[in-house]
Specification:
By secondary structure, the protein is of the alpha/beta class. It is 53% helix and 13% strand. Strands 2-3-1-4-5 form a five-stranded parallel beta sheet, with helices on both faces. The two termini are 16 Å apart. The protein binds thymidine-5'-phosphate.
Length: 215
């Protein structure tokens, strides 16, 4: 858990992570509705962004599988640097609750499967080179790769050739679980084979407990 006394801002950062098709985007939208109607000032952000030049490049080139592993890593880190400076930190400084759909743990989990860097090294770069703020809690929505892929490709009718491959998602899921087990951050693993409603309920309870405890 982030040491509240040492935080340079009054907001809260909750991150949802998981493989493609794990349900994080739908869960974020539901959580945004519930927490907003409770009276919290909440913002839902996502990475890769579709605002910075680097985020736009990822969204344009990845569906065809055009990016080299080095390009993937650099683009996600540059996009994140922009996102932190222009969206995440300003929201945290305004005291908002930030629901972030993917963050640097995604770079650790996905890019460690294609580069020769470990997830540890990738997380270190994000923390040290671009001073990524530490989340209050990272929720890992855990689902077997086959189910995630079926959900993700069923939604759009086609797979993103860069990221949505079964063998890659098996490794990404494993990396997320290893990160949750070994990294210094605060993680909660949520069984995302359950209904969306159950997933949202579990996350909602943990977030509201955290917010109430800090009052
Ligand atoms: P999305 O499906 O959540 O919009 O994310 C797009 C893809 O980008 C997804 O397949 C995971 C991948 N990704 C990475 O490989 N590394 C990262 O750091 C991030 C943020 C996303």
């Amino acid at each position: 858990m982030v040491d509240e006394a040492k935080k340079e801002y009054s907001g809260f950062l909750f991150v949802l992570e998981g493989i493609d098709g794990s349900g994080k985007t739908c869960a974020c939208k539901e959580l945004l509705k519930r927490l907003t109607s409770d009276g919290y000032t909440v913002i839902h952000l996502r990475e890769p962004t579709n605002e910075s030049q680097w985020g736009k490049e990822i969204r344009e080139r990845s569906p065809k599988g055009e990016l080299t592993p080095e390009e993937e890593l650099e683009l996600f880190i540059r996009d994140r640097e922009w996102h932190i400076a222009n969206r995440i930190l300003p929201a945290l400084k305004e005291g908002k609750v930030v629901l972030l759909d993917r963050y640097f743990f995604a770079t650790g989990a996905y890019q460690s499967t294609v580069t020769n860097l470990s997830w540890k090294e990738i997380l270190r770069r994000n923390r040290e080179e671009i001073s990524s703020p530490e989340p209050d809690i990272v929720f890992i929505l855990d689902v077997p790769a086959k189910i995630g892929l079926e959900r993700a490709t069923g939604r759009t009718g086609k797979a993103n050739l860069q990221f949505e491959k079964l063998d890659r998602l098996v490794k990404v899921r494993q990396a997320y679980l290893e990160i949750a087990e070994n990294d210094v951050g605060t993680f909660r693993i949520i069984n995302s084979e359950q209904s969306l409603e159950r997933v949202v309920d579990e996350i909602y309870d943990i977030i509201t407990d955290t917010l109430i405890m800090s009052e």
